[in-house]
């Protein structure tokens, strides 16, 4: 008897290669995720087509943008979101500012996340001297005065967005690394990792295929919250002279320039704040949906 | 005494036999789960009743919805996938199916308790077992913390966990599989519920302890009139315990009846098939002794010498080592190609630890060589090659499967790792493997949590087989399978052995299975091997008292030959935990003829 | 454990030395000249040079750093260039306030954040969950200056429940802690929700329910310890963030913490203060992380200290 | 100095500051915050009449100037006691100035005493004190100078020449700045680092009847916006950092609050420097073009009219201000022509450095737009103060700097004070404060000449000479003066005293010795 399977076992269809519904398809089926995607798309388009969307220049100080005593104008029919302290159109500045802020929120934040996850996961998985060395290096970076580094970089390099992105990545990966480290070291002790090891799975495989997927929720949390913080951090760095310089707008520095005026001219803080919030929320909506989709225990949720 | 009064008087005087009024009345229960392709019934239109003081055994095919049914009674079906689609669960005048969470809280644990199938994942990994036990007791009694603690210690002692007092401070991962299961049992028993649902409560227990535990259940039943739903594959246990039996298959009840009737005159084909597949002691001999390989062949697949594994136990403020767990203490054996070495022994005696050491998962002293290559001093590449040849099936299948991967990918993974075949070939092979272990190929798309305990176990087996290794370590790998599937899987294992010369290190409590499958048997006790020889030698001529006890304790799958009472051992439970510096004595093995090794002192 | 601690302490000392070296080097490379800050605008070049010589700032880098380390070993952090007081005195005077605010903030963060996270996880997918999500993102995205000012305006100016800034009593502590805490709470809430959701689907939660435990006990006693691990790491991180990064809140509330000290020092290149504060906060961060690492195995006993 | 007949002694006030009080050592303290605090703890030989820039003797009862203007002899006021009870003598005066000049002290004020004989040796640490200072008798002290110095009396009024008791300085050593002991109207009561400094009335103050206040509490570390909130709630009396720009309109639009704001001039000019070493600013026409390009009215509007447009380095309230000088008009067309003449018709790109605190980056953006209108593309470099100063001190470091936030507020009200370090050749050195690196030997000579006119009777003549110097400078246009900031001090309703005490040109924010509160019983 070559085949021990008794007849009452349902015969296997040779290769049931039923296509799994793509993640993308499942994503757009969720209304909240769709809202998130739309917000992200709108922001991207707004940034890309800013010059066509507004009649003003981003650093055009309008004579009629200020009152005689130098106060900015609240939202009105000419300036839809009002003007800033220099009499510039706020909407225009927010549209152009999206360029900087998207760059920071996505590239810088993403890099930080990537480095942090790499380091934290490696350290948490290998422990031993590699882990020790990596984590002590992380401690060192965390304890290191980032602002000082920023100031020094500002002095050495020509201020540019790339440097801000670099500094932000440099500052932010550390925290991600720490959290990833603890979670990974806990995961590594789970039995299914031991099972993988007995299969002879390479460390890279275990890390990528078995540990990383369990970290996705954390990555999503840090990634989405990181958007707000990095966009605001960019403003601090610009303030110290290493980022975009005035009059180039970014959401963060619009808020920073104006935050002391927030009682006198609340719109100057409110609108860019809403922009940051919306972007972060949008990514979070997509992230949460993604998380649900990737989480097998959530299958069957309507 | 009228039945109603008996139902109320939950005293020691309560009668053991079933009384008329049902405690639990399940009618028309249908459970559905939602998957990617819509809803599917896993339990269909199930009705049964459970009388007071009665033991109802549910047996049947693995994956037939037994666990789901019991979870439905507890209203603990896995959310969000599973739900009760229709039906009623009558209990104490209420329909549990429609009760809200708060009302259920008062019933769970207190009135209906449950022992879950997989003890590893069912215990909270970050809480000491003491806390988990004491908490259960405190929730439903108003004992003080100290009394509750005392209670907990007694409960642990009752399930024969050694050193109960100090075990309270241990965490689940520090316990052996059987111990974890006993902790779960202790937890449920301590609550003295009206209805106890025990889902495979003794799969991880050696037969002596199993006997103890079953006796404990009966004792509880006798004293409190507890009704028991016992889900088990072990027909011996069914025969031993059941008043009535339900046989399930594909989510439907196939047959139900008095235990005697079922065993004697099964009406349904499936039941007959099931009973026919029950492994019985003594049948193994039929395989013939001729196959027994020559002793001490030089080309052993694995050769273990003086293997010792110890775990430190920390105590005190500074966390110094105060005690040591001598889990494995100087174990030596060889496994030759084409050979099945069974490792049997009391729960907690170090079987899994030995297995893990061979799989390279715990640090050890001594030497382990696979294919003649000693682990010590192997490069990473070489180790990977060695690992390919040794595959382990873990005792706890759920914990050893990555919950975020589809089982198809999990089974294909070993091939992927070792670069075998193209993606399509691998898929095909996985599908074939699935078939051979009795799973459907379309289940490849599911995730581990969507399977029943037995199905998961089969996934693990398929996974280990995928590589056709030289040595498979199977740690309690067929314990959760119903006997018919079990028979098929065992058949498959044998076949593969013949085809590819695979050697097995087969760890099991089920002496009948061991008798059926093994070529040689090693009996472990307190971390050391006390007897080792061919199957015939060990089963035919057991020399060590522990071996004898083991064989005697095997329940016989025949209700007619039901034993009245297990002798409850009152002796001190021996323990492998010892204070620092107090090392256990190493036992010497003496050859009593033909390579039959027995502890010298016992000869 | 002891061996681990010993090893970690040695590593920590090396880290501190490393940080002092890098910081010192950066400050050395900084184009802004501290002497010019000290000497002020009317000083003649001769005066500037004489001050430079006095402070040893004309020496090569290694000599300067060597001297700094040597003094450091003797417990001397030097004197502020601008304030001319001993740095250790200045730091010690402000340390209690920083620590207090740190504790207050962490308590607020945990209290608000963890509760929010717990509720959101339990009510996953509901309206409550959605609004908590928005709330936590507002917390994270709102500039601290604005949050602080709003709180001040409402609770101190309008309602007079709390004093408008200052330091000393418990009621002084509330608003600044809250301001810092609101941002952190957003983080903790999201983290908590995320890890809680994972935990709530585990089998052992089912076991706990089977025991008949009530919801709260299950959440607090069974789910929380499993979900809290990343949170503990966060607290370690928080110490770092709070140690130097709450200048805005400190000055809004007139809170005499280290943040203000170092901010003023950075503006005026007061190297000894920058060095001193850097070392102190580095110490706190290293300590915080060490504690987080030590606590981890207690929370998840499967983790071993290695 | 007379007493105010309306003043009632007693009471205490609270003043807030954002930044720490660095030090109260008169030899060291050199920022506008501790400047006037020190003035209330210590006294010098000379002082100014409260609320004015008029010099009057203070610890000196009288003084004499030799006809050649090189010897100054001061007669000390008798019976002046330090806070520790000891009587002040001429020895103390000499000790105090020797101390400032001694390099060990690291005083930023060392250079002010350069005209005294023996300065070189003393400043180099080669001599024990200045040979030019002689204690004639315990109440007489004589200063001999190497050249006539018209500013010398002002120098005797600045903090660096305030008198300190030797025994206390030696007792506290480097910590004297935290334990100041002087002869001033107030003495230090309490100093809690990072929180508050408390001044208490000096009962033995030689000027009987002063000060009026019993106590002044300086609360430290408070954001100006919050300070204003507290003022509105009546918790404090004066926000030391002034009215925050963000709140300025709100305050000025409310009559009740506006009534408590005192406005006054300030010895301040905000300007843009153009580095004459950096092409194309080496061309005077380019610099003039910049002067014409900037729309000062609009920039003043940007800061809510808290300033008046400036056309020359000196502020209007400074003696020597050239009233008739019209400066460069705002004329972009003309500016473009000038650029074309300079061969920069297509414009050019340059950097404009600016300190990063509000409103400076904003002002810089205003200027940037004006420059863009004539084709100059100025990239803004908004940096921390220290970095801007560093860039300015490099020979070819910063092509343009907007001076706001670091701008020149005079040490003493004399026209010479706007020249030396910031426009003279002396400041055009690496690390100097002459950020335009403008150096005109001719003018340096003229300046020296003007400063040797010591005779008070010839003050007008001297002022005229200074006017000419600054007008001459404007022809070369190394700067584009933009505005002179006005001072707006806000106080609580209970504060009394003449308005000019609240905009005192040398006491910022207020003259502590002479103000009082109305609500004492
Ligand atoms: N969470 C889930 N989601 C989807 N399907 C599930 C889930 N849990 C179980 N199932 C399916 O429900 C069916 C019944 O499972 P159940 O656990 O009740 O089987 P069982 O009779 O207890 O089997 P065993 O003896 O192997 O434990 C199985 O086919 C299984 O695949
Ligand atoms: N990680 C660990 N830390 C401490 N003790 C451990 C650990 N793992 C196992 N032990 C102890 O080692 C002993 C042997 O455990 P092992 O798992 O090998 O038993 P087993 O023979 O497989 O038992 P079972 O049949 O119940 O599974 C037990 O006393 C157990 O408590
Ligand atoms: Mg089951
Ligand atoms: Mg085991």
Task: Give a summary of the structure in a few sentences.
The complex is a heterotetramer of chains A (302), B (603), C (306) and D (521). With 302 residues, chain A is mainly alpha-helical.
Topology record:
The complex is a heterotetramer of chains A (302), B (603), C (306) and D (521).
Chain A: H1 23-28, H2 31-48, H3 50-53, H4 90-126, H5 128-143, H6 146-156, H7 161-188, H8 191-198, H9 203-239, H10 251-258, H11 267-294
Chain B: H1 3-8, E1 22-35, E2 38-51, E3 55-60, H2 66-74, E4 82-91, E5 94-95, H3 101-107, E6 112-115, H4 119-122, H5 129-140, H6 145-158, H7 164-167, H8 177-190, E7 195-199, H9 207-224, E8 227-231, H10 235-241, E9 244-249, E10 252-258, H11 259-264, H12 269-277, E11 302-315, E12 320-335, E13 340-345, H13 351-358, E14 365-370, E15 373-374, H14 380-389, E16 390-393, H15 407-417, H16 423-436, H17 453-465, E17 471-475, H18 483-500, E18 503-507, H19 511-517, E19 520-525, E20 528-534, H20 535-540, H21 545-552, E21 577-579, E22 589-591, E23 597-599
Parallel strand pairs in B: 3-8, 3-9, 6-7, 7-8, 13-18, 13-19, 16-17, 17-18
Antiparallel strand pairs in B: 1-2, 1-4, 4-5, 9-10, 11-12, 11-14, 12-21, 14-15, 19-20, 20-23, 22-23
Helix pairs in contact in B: 5-6, 5-8, 6-8, 12-18, 15-16, 15-17, 16-17
Chain D: E1 12-17, H1 32-41, E2 46-48, E3 55-57, E4 60-65, E5 71-76, H2 90-101, H3 119-123, E6 133-137, E7 140-144, H4 152-155, H5 166-172, E8 186-192, E9 196-201, E10 215-220, H6 224-232, E11 238-239, H7 245-252, H8 255-258, E12 261-264, E13 268-274, H9 284-293, H10 296-302, E14 307-309, H11 332-341, E15 348-355, H12 360-373, E16 376-383, H13 385-392, E17 400-402, E18 408-409, H14 420-423, H15 441-451, H16 459-476, E19 479-485, E20 487-490, E21 495-496, E22 516-517
Parallel strand pairs in D: 1-10, 1-11, 15-16, 15-17
Antiparallel strand pairs in D: 2-3, 4-5, 5-7, 6-7, 8-9, 9-10, 12-20, 13-17, 13-18, 13-19, 14-19, 21-22
Helix pairs in contact in D: 9-11, 15-16
The complex binds adenosine-5'-triphosphate (2 copies) and magnesium ion (2 copies).
One adenosine-5'-triphosphate binds at residues 33, 42, 62-68, 78, 81-82, 117, 449-455, 480 of chain B.
Structure, described:
- The complex is a heterotetramer of chains A (302), B (603), C (306) and D (521).
- By secondary structure, chain A is mainly alpha-helical.
- Chain A has a domain of 211 residues: Orthogonal Bundle (MetI-like fold).
- Helix content of chain A is 67%, strand content 0%.
- Chain A is built from 11 helices and no strands.
- The N terminus of chain A is likely disordered.
- Chain B has 21 helices and 23 strands.
- The N terminus of chain B is likely disordered.
- Helices cover 34% and strands 25% of the residues of chain B.
- At the B-C interface, helix 3 and helix 5 of B face helix 9 and helix 10 of C.
- Bound molecules: adenosine-5'-triphosphate (2 copies) and magnesium ion (2 copies).
- Chain A: It is a multi-pass membrane protein.
- Chain A: Keywords: Cell membrane, Membrane, Peptide transport, Protein transport, Transmembrane, Transmembrane helix, Transport.
